Structures are given as C-alpha cells and as structure tokens.
Amino acid sequence: MISVLTIVSGREMALSNLIKGLAASTILPDELVIVFMNEPIREMPLLPFPIRCYNLIHPAHLPLADARNMAAEKAKGDFLIFLDVDCIPSATLIANYLKHFKSVALLSGQVRYLKNGATNQDGFLTKMEDLSTPDPIRAGLENIPYSLFWSLNFACSKTTYQKIGGFDKGYEGYGAEDTDFAFSAEKQQVPLHCVAAKAYHQYHESFSPPLNHLEDIVGNANRFFQKWKKWPMEGWLKSFEQMNLISWNERKIILNKKPSEEEIMVTLKN
Length: 270
Known about the structure:
Structural class: alpha/beta
Helix content: 25-40%
Strand content: 15-25%
Mean pLDDT: 93
Number of domains: 2
Low-confidence stretches: none
Order of helices and strands: EHEEHEEHEEEHHEHHEEH
Number of strands: 11
Shape: globular
CATH superfamily of the largest domain: Spore Coat Polysaccharide Biosynthesis Protein SpsA, Chain A
CATH topology of the largest domain: Spore Coat Polysaccharide Biosynthesis Protein SpsA, Chain A
Number of helices: 8
C-alpha cells in the first residue's frame, strides 16, 4: 500500500497543484495524507484515492519535524512517499519509486525548479520539464552524500522510517531537521540511494540567505552541533556572521539581533 504524505502551512494553490499531479500519475497512490500545521483543515476534492487530513497544533509556527512524524504515524501504507507541498509529482514519480519498494534504504528523488508563472499556463502538467530547470546542486549525481539529503521528495518503507527514528522533534521551524534525519539514517546504517522519481518545485518567493528564518536556523544549528559535532548550513551561517547578526564560536551560535523587514527584503531572490 502506497501512502503519499505532505505537510502544509498556507500554500493553498501549491497544494491544489500537487493533488492535480498525483491524480495524473500512471500509478495512483492508495492514499494522500495531509497534515495542516497550526491552521484549519481545508475541504479537499473527490479523487480516485482517499485524502485523509489531520491538524497539528504546536507552539512552533512551523513544526516540520512533528508534522512529518504525524503524517508517517497516520499513514496506512507500508511504503511512504514524502512530497513537499511545493512539489508537483511527475506522472511516473510513484512508478519509479515502486521499483525500489522492497529496498531497505532511504530513497532520494529528483527535483526540478519551475519558473515563475509556469503553473499559470494552460496544460502546465504536460509541460513541466520544459518549464523547469534542474537542481543546481544535485542534478546529474548518481549518488549524494547524506549531507545533501533534502526532504522535498523522498521515500522509504515505514519500517525503515521507524528504524531511522523519524524526524527529531527537537528541531523547531526551518532548517537542518532533514540533514539530521539523513545523519540518523547513516548512523543506523540505512543506505541512501538516488532514484529517478522526479518532482517539480513550484516557484515562490525565497531569500538568500534566508533572513526570514534566522531565529529558527540559529536554534536548529545549535541543536545539530550538540548532536553531531558538525555545523549544518555553514554557508548561511557565515553570511549571518558577516552581517553581524550572530556571534559564532567553536561550540555555539548566539543571536545578536533580529534583522529588520528592510534587511530581509534586500535578500529576496529575483
């Protein structure tokens, strides 16, 4: 039984497009499990597969780790496919993952990035390859290190998920929780395999470095270092340090000040 899982905060149109993509799959899932984070459950369309929705109320504004664990716990399937709400699955994503159904591994799918306005075009579901660009970091790699694992598009059996230990609930908000998950997989000797299961990431505003998530990133980076004695997200942390937003020594990061709205907007990517 195949369960597709996604977690949601806002992103109403993105979720609608994800569902449209799933409905156009060559192999349909047995269910779609959606966890809404700190917001009401929305009405869902009727489809050839059930959509089961849950609501997670949490003190963190974006409880990504908790929400993914809830989705995995509620899933009825023994094969779990996790898709970020911003991702639209290709028609063959499920079929390509299913080739590895019996694999005791963490499966990392491919991601391409849709251009601004792509999903406004008529019939965009059949044009996504032409309307997108490859992931600049992972594209073309037959294997990736655990440090490059990303939770946008991945799959594993429920047994493997439980062996890894799920996502660490100590991470709150944005940043490092997926790298921690991959490091836990490595610690449990779960292989990481790249799979030709493609998803298309829908365009939305983003920031580089992500000053809009500064506090989350600082807190999660400190937690990650306490566990693994390595720093995650070093590029972003170095940028924050150069902007004097943080003080960073060998063992801890201290938040010096929060960025202003004007400072955040300067980092908006074109």
